[in-house]
Amino acid sequence: MRTPTGQRGFTLVELLVALALMALMAALSWRGLDGMTAAQKRLAQHADAVLTLQTGLAQWGADLDALAQQPNTPSIDWDGRALRLLRRGSQSGTEGLHVVAWSQRRVGDTLYWLRWQSPELTTRAALQTAWNQAARWGQNPSDEDRQQEVRITPVLGWQIFFYRGGAWTNPLSSADAAAGTAAAPEGAASAPGAAVGSLFGGLGGTVVKTPTAAPGNAMPDGVRLMLTLPADQAISGLLTRDWSRPGLGGAQ
Q: Which of 92-96, 131-135, 143-147, 192-196 has the highest mean pLDDT?
């Protein structure tokens, strides 16, 4: 009669090999999970960057759509560094005006596209002060000026063109501004964004329903924005955004 033999266990070498294989599989799995986490983080950063840029472009269009006019005060001005706008408030029909400025400036090692906005303006003196402050912000901002700015997106540069006299022109050209004044369509002052109503009516100002812009300060029929975005951004290269004055059928 044969006696059953005992069951044979793992040798020390076999156990060490099994442990080494398990450690290798765990390391490979961790690298895979780490790669997935990094990819998700990059995707989230790109999505945030795209959303921020879209929000900035939407605000750009909203500022231009809300352009307002006041006597002896330009509604839009480009000085080579900053684009200044006079716009209506967005909260209610009784809200005062705001001065808005767009520019670019280096913050640390990064060049940013920036937006600045004044508080609500209810007097002509406050309007003039804010208009001058916006120009200062675009050239040499103080710490107080910087508190009212918002960084939109990193850029390599930007350009502005006005559509006047049937062509895209340099906003700093006085000849182009004069041509734009001559080419302004009849009734343009009553287009959306032109009437201010009685925002300054009860504060010593004159109620103006359809003010006429002074020569050389005529509101352009269109504004072209050209942003050059860095290669390391979610959207890179040259981005062009055209805006046309409401009621004009669109700039070409």
A: 131-135
**Count of structural domains, the chain:** 1
The 3-state DSSP class for residue 2 equals coil
Does the residue 24 lie in any domain?
A: no
- Name every residue whose Cβ is closer than 8 Å to that of residue 76 and which is 6 or more positions away in sequence: 67, 83, 84, 85, 86, 219, 220, 223
- For a pLDDT cut of 90, what percent of the chain falls above it? 47
Q: Is residue 240 part of a domain?
A: yes
Is residue 7 in some structural domain? Answer: no
- Identity of residue 203: L
Task: State how far the alpha carbon of 76 is from the alpha carbons of 2, 37, 171, 232, in Å.
Answer: 107, 47, 10, 33
Q: How far apart are CA 201 and CA 208, in angstroms?
A: 8
Helix (H) or strand (E) holding 206: none
* Residues 228, 57, 161, 138, Cα dihedral to 10°: -80
Q: Which residues contact 54 (CB under 8 A, 6 or more apart)?
A: none
What is this structure's pTM?
Answer: 0.70
Is 60 a member of any domain? no
Q: For the chain, where are the alpha helices, taking DSSP H only? A: 12-65, 124-139, 143-146, 174-183
Range of the domain at 171: 67-184+193-244
